[in-house]
Structure formats: C-alpha cells, structure tokens
Amino acid sequence: MTLTTMTAFHLHDVTKKFGRTTALDAVTCDIPLGHVHGLIGRNGAGKTTLLRTLAGQIRVSGTLTLGDASGAASQVWDNPGVLDHLVLAGADVPYPSDMSVRTLMDIAAARWITWDEPFATEWVDRFGVDPKARFSTLSRGQKTLASLVIGLGLRAQVTLLDEPYLGLDVQNRDLLCSVLLDEITDDPTRTWIISNHHVEDAALLLDSVIVLDGGRVTEVCPVDDLTRGTAVVEGASAAVASLLEDGQFPVLREDAAAGRRRVTLATSVEDAGLDACARDLGLRLSEPDLEHAVLARGGER
User: Fold this and answer.
1) Distance CA 206, CA 194 (A)
2) Distance in angstroms (rounded) separating the CA atoms of residues 15 and 287
3) CA distance 77 to 83
4) How many whole angstroms separate alpha carbon 177 and alpha carbon 179?
5) Do you know which Gene3D superfamilies this protein is assigned to (predicted)?
6) Please, which of 14, 87, 119, 135 could form a disulfide with 27 given CB 3.0 to 4.6 Å?
7) Are strands 36-40 and 191-195 parallel, antiparallel or unpaired?
8) What average pLDDT does this structure show over 134-145?
9) Cα–Cα distance between 291 and 103 in angstroms, integer?
10) pLDDT tens per residue, range 214-267
11) 28, 60 contact by CB (below 8 A)
12) Distance between CA atoms of 244 and 16, rounded to whole angstroms?
C-alpha cells in the first residue's frame, strides 16, 4: 500500500504522557486525507504533541495507522514507506542550532527525493532569510520561516505545520498565506494539517477543522458543518435567561456586559424551535463565523 492510496489517519486510544502530564488523552478519531485541516486548541491542549505523533516523531500508546478504502492499514511509527511522505515544519520544530540554513536545505535535498530546490531557493530569498546564517542566530520569526521553507520545499504528500505564522511580520504573513494558497490549489490531493491559535490567519485555506481540548479531539468536521451547527443568540440578559431556562439548547460559550448577554449554542440557526423562541423574546439570532464557532468549541480564548 502506498501513501497515494491511503484515505485517512486512524487514531484509537492514542495517549502520550510526559511525566505526570497527559498531553494526549485516549484520542480516538479519523482524519481524512486530501483535505486542509485546521488544528485548533488552547495553549497546552496537545496540538504540537498530536502533530509530532502524526509525523511519527514520538512514540505513543494506542494505535496510529494510515488506512485505505479496502480497510488495509499501515503503522505510522518507524515505517519508512509512510514517513518518506510526511513532513512537520513550523515555529518549534527542532533543528541543529550550529548548522546554517543552507546546510539544513542540503540535508533535506539528500534525504527526500521530492525536494524542490528552485522552490526552496526562491522562497528563502523572498522571506528574507539568510541561507548562510546559523540556525541559532536567527530570530524567532526567521526560524519559523527557515523551517517552513524546508517543509514546503519537500513537497510532501502530507504536510503538518505547527504555528506557521508565529513571529512573522505582516509582510511575511501575507507571503506565507499566498504560497500556501498556491500550493494547496496546485495539488488538491495533498493533505495539510495546520495548527494555529488565530483562526483568521488560516480561515481562507481550511475546509476542515480538528478541535483539540484538554488532550482530546472533540471535533473533526468540515468547516461548513461546524458553523452551521452553531448559533449565536444575543439580547437582554433576562430574555436570554428565559430562552435557556429549560436547558433545551446546550450552551458552548457566553459573554455578558451592561445588562446584555450573548450565548453560543450547539445547534443550528435553522432550528425551528430556537428561531421561534428567539423571535418571541426579541433576541437576535445569527450564525457565527469560523473563528467564533471554533472558540466556542474549545479553541483559544
């Protein structure tokens, strides 16, 4: 079985502990390939640990496989046939500090047959990273960019990006968004999992969201399903309290100020009962944008 025939990551009871800290807590989910997933969660939710697990960089308990439509599956851990097609890049991916960016690029070129030297050379220049500089001397943003150049230059079938916007100035954020959009558009068969605190940075790129909360994956769903399955109600505090008093509508998040209250509910704005109650009580009902929906379901507050 080759990576091009595989359809999804399958995780079952995947757990990782660091001392007494449980970074991943019995994660069980399927992550389909061929999509652009946003990995969303608070600080300490386990995002980096999950990405490193998917990349085969750390060993976990439970099972992590890549499966195809026939039901056959291949382990990710210590499997060159899989790992040759996966790459993890981003702000905190460790590189040898005494090596130059150019040396790291040369190592990548020797390791992966998919390495695209013209692409990497162009983007290390456009991002303004000195290829002769030692990795340890780079700023936080430049380290992020150097890692991204290497990760994107591999043209891997599965690309995992850990906080790719961290430390970047406005110009380089725009450039990164542009190159990611081009890469995603040029080959829609590739898989991307992008971890980011700020959903708005990657919102235009995503077609799916993975929500991680307290070391557990709570959602893996298309962006449209997430927003359509969430409703925002706002108005006078007393009226909102009346709407919620029978517990019919599960509350995901709420904010209050100056006698007004806004609640985010785990239901659709098309829910006839919710719509009727909101109108009767003089409340405003709306569908949230992606950022609001993600925040309500476990993203960064």
Assistant:
1) 9
2) 35
3) 8
4) 6
5) P-loop containing nucleotide triphosphate hydrolases
6) 14
7) parallel
8) 95
9) 39
10) 999 998 999 888 888 999 999 999 999 999 998 889 999 999 888 899 999 999
11) no
12) 38
Q: What is the mean pLDDT of the chain?
A: 90
- A 10 A CB-CB count for 34 gives 15
Which two structure tokens, joined as six digits, stand for 162?
């850990």
Contact 139, 166 (CB under 8 A): no
* Strand arrangement, sheet containing 86-90: 86-90, 158-162, 191-195, 36-40, 208-213, 216-222
User: Residue 300: is its pLDDT beyond 80?
Assistant: no
Give which of 214, 211, 244, 240 is closest to 227, Cα–Cα: 211
Give residues with Cβ within 8 angstroms of 45, minimum separation 6. Answer: 212, 213, 214, 215, 298
Q: Per-residue DSSP letters for 136-169?
A: GGS-HHHHHHHHHHHHHHTT-SEEEEESTTTT--
Phi and psi at 40, nearest 5°, equal: -120, 140
Task: Indicate if the pLDDT at residue 4 is higher than 60.
Answer: no
Mean pLDDT within 143-153: 97
CB atoms under 10 Å from CB of 206, counted, come to 24
Say whether pLDDT at 1 is over 70: no
- Burial class from Cβ neighbours inside 10 Å (0-12, 13-18, 19+) for residue 157 reads buried
Domains and CATH numbers, the chain: 3-221 (3.40.50.300), 229-296 (3.30.70.1710)
